């Protein structure tokens, strides 16, 4: 891949950057829509910066040892740059930091003696002590800062993982530390730890709300561990890490917009605006990465991107108070994780790579397998494997004469899809999985806002309760 941008690319990126910079210069005027437009403009700048830097820094990353071989290609002698998600993460963090003053512009003017108060004559004592800082929404700022700390932490972890290839058992729980700032802010700012019980359960429990207390924080911390890891293990074919993340981010943003277009200011408007401020730049940098990572990949995203993406989702959902909605959007990832459990927890051998196998003759992907030649699964596990095979949830190849298991397909949704659909081209598989993610996500949102009314008294979008 040439590390230089082509002329049309340079022109398009320059035009986009100029347009975004102009819009940005004109929006430093207020909260609400002004900040949203600024966020959009910064996202455009983030796209342009990531796009150019992914291209320029590719050779530098390869030289630094951050490189990988594309395992599903015929001529894969060339190394591709790995860990390019680190560029996106850094550009993203810069954007979010530059963005901080925009949503607070009015508050800053109000809380300090600048702006509107300039013509008021004040004595020195008043200026020192009387700054209206108590009017400044400190908890809102705390949310921003906690979000930034969490994302920085997860980025460091991701880069460390890409550099040193940390074993997954060791790195699995580290995102829990990144969750602490989020949970502290949640505790101070919101603190709701009760869940609404479905109507059919209410007569038995005798109340509408069930307070989970400490368990609610444990649930959110677990979610912080789960989300980044779940994106990372639904990986291995060109483009799939980024395309699933883009779909989830778009659906979350769509859900946010639903709250913004309600006719009256909704109690949840602020938290959904907050969510949009973090999702739009994420989409900007992700599109730039996707254009380089889609089939045939010119760069790899690295674990940095997967962890970072997963953390963005869980962060906006915790601080935006809609973590249950995110669960509905992560159904394919949850399925992939649960399906992977036998291999992740060592019940069945787990090779270093479980990505689909590239058949060089046909040029198509087939399920990759774990071989059982010299040893056999324990009787109970063998029964389960055979049961899964009969349910078409696994491919098991047996020796016709002895009945010994020779190989079983690896436990990932990508391999399972190939078991169902037969061999597929890599780009075709990526599109089908992405389409499935869109369909399941839209269904999830439908369940969230419409079907939930069957088991809950109200949908907060219609009613106006913030929980
Ligand atoms: C996770 C998966 C592993 C899968 C890998 C692929 C688990 C427990 N781990 O491991 O099974 O094989 O992701 O990303 O499920 N690669 C390609 N084509 C692609 C993407 C990646 O060939 O489209 C290869 C490249 O050699 C790349 C490497 O995979 O360098 C990246 O693997 P890495 O992200 O380090 O693997 P893990 O996240 O540890
Ligand atoms: Mg990975």
Output the structural class: mainly alpha
Overall form: globular
Kindly report the average pLDDT value. Answer: 89
State the helical fraction. 55-70%
What ligand molecules are bound, each kind once? uridine-diphosphate-N-acetylglucosamine, magnesium ion
Largest β sheet strand count, sense and barrel closure: 3 strands, antiparallel
- Strand content range: 5-15%
Distance between the termini: 49 Å
Query: In total, how many domains does the architecture comprise?
Result: 2
Round the Cα radius of gyration to an integer and report it: 25 Å
The poorly predicted ranges are: 463-467
Number of strands: 9
The DSSP helix count reads 19
What order do the SSEs take from the amino end to the carboxyl end, as H and E? HHEEHHHHHHEHEHHHHHHEEEHEEHHH
Q: What is the spatial order of strands in the main beta sheet?
A: 7-9-8
Subcellular location: Endoplasmic reticulum membrane
Cofactor: Mg(2+)
Pathway: Protein modification; protein glycosylation
Protein name: UDP-N-acetylglucosamine--dolichyl-phosphate N-acetylglucosaminephosphotransferase
Structure characterization notes:
This protein has 467 residues and is mainly alpha-helical. The chain folds into two domains: 66-102 and 139-329 and 426-466, no CATH class; 357-421, no CATH class. The protein is 63% helix and 6% strand. The strands form four sheets. A three-stranded antiparallel β-sheet has the order 7-9-8. Strands 1-2 form a two-stranded antiparallel ribbon. Mean pLDDT is 89; it is low at 463-467. Bound molecules: uridine-diphosphate-N-acetylglucosamine (UD1) and magnesium ion. Magnesium ion (MG) is lined by residues 232, 235, 303, 306. It is found in: Endoplasmic reticulum membrane. The chain crosses the membrane at residues 35-58, 79-102, 141-160, 172-196, 216-235, 242-261, 273-292, 304-322, 328-348.
């Amino acid at each position: 891949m040439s590390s230089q941008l082509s002329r049309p690319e340079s022109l398009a990126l320059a035009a986009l950057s100029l347009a975004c910079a102009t819009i940005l210069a004109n929006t430093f005027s207020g909260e609400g829509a002004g900040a949203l437009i600024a966020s959009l403009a910064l996202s455009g700048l983030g796209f342009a910066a990531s796009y150019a830097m992914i291209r320029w820094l590719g050779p530098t990353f390869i030289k630094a040892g951050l490189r990988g071989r594309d395992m599903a290609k015929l001529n894969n002698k060339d190394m591709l740059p790995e860990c390019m998600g680190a560029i996106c993460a850094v550009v993203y963090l810069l954007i979010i930091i530059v963005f901080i003053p925009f949503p607070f512009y009015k508050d800053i003017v109000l809380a300090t003696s600048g702006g509107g108060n300039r013509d008021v004559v004040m004595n020195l004592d008043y200026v020192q002590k009387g700054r209206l800082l108590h009017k400044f929404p400190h908890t809102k700022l705390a949310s921003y800062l906690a979000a930034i700390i969490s994302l920085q932490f997860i980025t460091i972890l991701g880069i460390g993982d890409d550099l040193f290839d940390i074993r997954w058992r060791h790195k699995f729980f580290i995102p829990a530390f990144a969750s602490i700032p989020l949970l502290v802010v949640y505790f101070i700012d919101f603190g709701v730890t009760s869940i609404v019980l479905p109507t059919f359960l209410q007569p038995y429990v005798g109340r509408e709300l069930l307070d989970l207390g400490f368990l609610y924080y444990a649930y959110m911390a677990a979610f912080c561990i789960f989300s980044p890891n779940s994106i990372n293990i639904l990986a291995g074919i060109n483009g799939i890490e980024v395309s699933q993340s883009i779909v989830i981010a778009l659906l979350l943003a769509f859900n946010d917009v639903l709250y913004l277009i309600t006719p009256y200011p909704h109690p949840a408007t602020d938290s959904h605006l907050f969510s949009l401020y973090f999702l739009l730049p994420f989409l900007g940098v992700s599109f730039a990465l996707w254009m380089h990572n889609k089939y045939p990949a010119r760069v790899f995203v690295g674990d940095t991107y997967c962890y970072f993406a997963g953390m963005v989702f869980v962060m906006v959902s915790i601080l935006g108070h809609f973590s249950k909605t995110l669960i509905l959007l992560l159904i394919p990832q949850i399925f992939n994780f649960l399906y992977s459990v036998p291999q992740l927890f060592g019940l069945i051998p787990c090779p270093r790579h479980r990505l689909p196998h590239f058949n060089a003759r046909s040029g198509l992907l087939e399920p990759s397998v774990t071989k059982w030649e010299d040893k056999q699964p324990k009787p109970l596990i063998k029964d389960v494997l055979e049961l899964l095979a009969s349910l078409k949830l696994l491919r098991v190849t047996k020796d016709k004469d002895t009945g010994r298991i020779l190989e079983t397909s690896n436990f990932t949704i990508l391999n399972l899809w190939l078991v169902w659909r037969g061999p597929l081209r890599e780009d075709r598989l990526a599109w089908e999985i992405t389409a499935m993610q869109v369909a399941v996500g839209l269904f999830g949102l439908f369940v969230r806002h419409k079907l939930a009314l069957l088991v809950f008294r109200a949908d907060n979008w219609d009613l106006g309760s913030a929980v």
